[in-house]
Amino acid sequence: MSTAPAQSVPPGFASLALARGVVGFYRLWHGTLGLRGAGRLINHLSPRLSGLQCYPLRLPNGHIAEVDFRELSAFGWLNTMLGDDNQETPLIEAIAAHLSGDSVFWDIGANAGILSAEIARRTAIGEHHYFEPNPRIYPWAEAALSHLPQARGHPVAVSSSEGTATLFIPVNLSAFGSLEGNCRGEAIRVEVETVSGDLLVYERGLAPPSVIKIDTEGHEVEVMGGMRRLVAEYRPLVFFEHIELSDEQVRAMTPEGYRVGTLCDTTGAILDRLDRSAGHNSALVPTER
Fold first, then answer.
1. Burial (CB count <10 Å: 0-12, 13-18, 19+), residue 205
2. Are strands 237-241 and 64-67 parallel, antiparallel or unpaired?
3. How far apart are CA 28 and CA 279, in angstroms?
4. I need a surface site. Which of 78, 129, 170, 177 has the fewest CB within 10 A?
5. For 176-210, what is each residue's pLDDT tens digit?
6. What is the CATH topology of the domain spanning 89-286?
7. Interval 130-144: pLDDT, tens
8. What is the pTM of this model?
9. What angle do CA 223, 192, 227 make, to 5 degrees?
10. Whole-angstrom Cα distance, residue 108 to residue 133?
11. Which whole-number Å values give the CA distances from 184 to 100, 112, 173, 188, in the listed order?
């Protein structure tokens, strides 16, 4: 395993011009014509073309993110802007439906900021906090959300306690990075700061969340364990990805006075049960709701 993120070489004029042409072709071929195959060209060229490793992608808010097309999350942003269906659309819509102008939203495991930006586009939020410990990807989320005065980024990992931990990041697949060390294949190891939800609220003064989204690739149990006090006091609605969790782990992370419901991938409804065949995200819902 590598112990440091791969560094991108600043592109020269010719390399950047070629990269712009390649991305422009992708926009036409994939975005306008709806044809397959253009992504293979980017995948083939990105390991050797510095312009694709530090590409100035203009995001929907007009800000520039220097993205690396060796990383799958760069395609995530580009495809979102081209209007591709987002597999997290049911989750985005379910979260947005539970937010209002005085809500506080925490996005734990924000990655490149796509979900947070889409939620902010759909609804007003009183305060919006996003957490992403990957030092290469966090600036992309920051660029995506920097136009929102209510949004505040935190380049830390939310866990069960304050300290440091090793973040394991699969090469070119930052969305699957985890503190659990459960990466398949080659991974980069990065030491990151950890904080607990309770510490953020009761010691650092963050507003307690109304709605929380957790996508930490198997670390969700630790995340919930670090926010027992705020969950008991403020009763937020919690959405989480359950793919890397066993049924026993889901039961263990369910607070007293909460029930588990699965978010249906087709309808966006919260089913009143844990049903892995219906969707890949679930919700912890206070019984009074």
1. exposed
2. unpaired
3. 32
4. 170
5. 999 998 776 788 999 999 999 999 999 999 999 99
6. Rossmann fold (3.40.50)
7. 999 999 999 999 999
8. 0.93
9. 20
10. 10
11. 39, 21, 10, 11
